[in-house]
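Reviewers of the previous submission asked for a worked example of the structure-prediction workflow described in the proposal, so we include one complete record here. The input consisted solely of the amino acid sequence. No template or homolog information was supplied to the procedure at any stage.
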Amino acid sequence: MIDPLEPRRLLSGNVAVKISDGHVRFIGDAGSNTLVITYSRPEHQLIVAGRSGTTVDGKSSRVYAARDSIAVSLGAGDDVVTLQRFSGGFNVGVDLGDGNDAVYFKRSNLLAADFFGDTGNDTLVMLDSTVDGNIRFAGGVGADTLWLKNASVRGSVKMAGGAGLDRVFADRVSIGRDFVFEDLNGRSALDLNTLSVRGRTIVQTGNSIDRLTITDSTFAHDAKVILRGGDDRVTVRGSVFNTPSPFNPGTGNNRVDRELMLSWNFADGKQGWDGGFANFSPSKVNPEDDGVSQFEFVNGIAPLPTELGLNQTGYGFSAKNLSDDLFAFLTRPVTAADGIIGGQSYDITFGIRFASNTPAGLIGAGGPPAEAVRLGVGGVAQRPKTYLDEHGDIVINLNKRGVDMSDAGDIQNGEVFGPEDSLINSEKTKYKLVGRTKTHDNPVRSHKTGRLWLIFATKSGFEGRTTLDYASISVRMTPSTSEKD
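From that input alone, the workflow returned the following structure tokens.
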């Protein structure tokens, strides 16, 4: 993000000052005024300096006692005011008046700040500062800009734009309550980078061409973005929304290029995930058995191993691999309500955390208990289903050889045992929380209705029992320009 540049203009005029009970009011004239106001906390004083020919009560600089609030009325002209090093809970109000005006806050702590523009291109910049209360900015007619960088606002930030191109730039900003931007009368451009909003987020624009870019940001409460008419463009990367589908692009030739960040912690239950098993032949193992119980299938929500110390549930899987190819899977749909766009291809990165007590290096029937059990991740447009094929096998409607699924590693817990430990000794092996991250090798195109199915699984070559407990799953789904084969 490009930093704002302060204008370098030849300014003139006089600023009058009125003081009443700790309240200081600066009144500009019809000229172009520029002021630098610095707060000196030990003396509770304002050091006010005119620049580029501007005088303060007829002199180049003045010092005033101040404790409570500051009001600045700039009047006509292209005015510039810099306020810096404020602390102690000042309320600041600025009436920008007509003209192309700019207000800069630097390294300050304020109680609250209100800004009111008029005709002209007005700019408010806040750098390395905090506000205990709210910021309000009414831009008026003209191309107005709100620029916040390295700022913390414990209250709300609200900007109302007018006619003209109105812009908001936020870089490394936290807002404790609401973020509201409304501009129904002109064009709008918002660039939000590493923004954290704990309250509601409301963005409303009019019928012009609008641009919204959101990067690495978090919106903890309800979010609503309404762009109305015009050919609008929304780009979202690395951001998390509490609201499943906050964007309404309105009419026009619009494009919403949104990367989805979704996560599920099985401490909160299944949350739409469903599990099952495939690649086994019930009748071929023991025809006299019921065909299923011999595999000792277990899947569902259960407490994580106590030795992890997490005191929460996970999604547990356990089974005997009697077929030498057992496939144990979890799957879940993501839909338009989650932000999926119909017919869009996505590059999908999975993050999986699971409990494993299986070290590397062991010897087992059919293959090592850790290395021969492979994790796979993927996605498909149609629901994964198991069925009985013509050979009497329970199979699943997936291409597991690199198209619908991608290999994400084995299930080892980070420990390495020697060949002499061919049988797992429960006193030696300990459960550990293991993480795996994998981007699916192929982009996945959603169904035209805005739906696709996420899937992750284990495919086992170890002819014995495998037990895994999944703690959480996360996905990053980035719109792809590639097409699925």
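Confidence is low (pLDDT under 50) at residues 7-11. We consider this example representative of the routine output the project will generate in years two and three.
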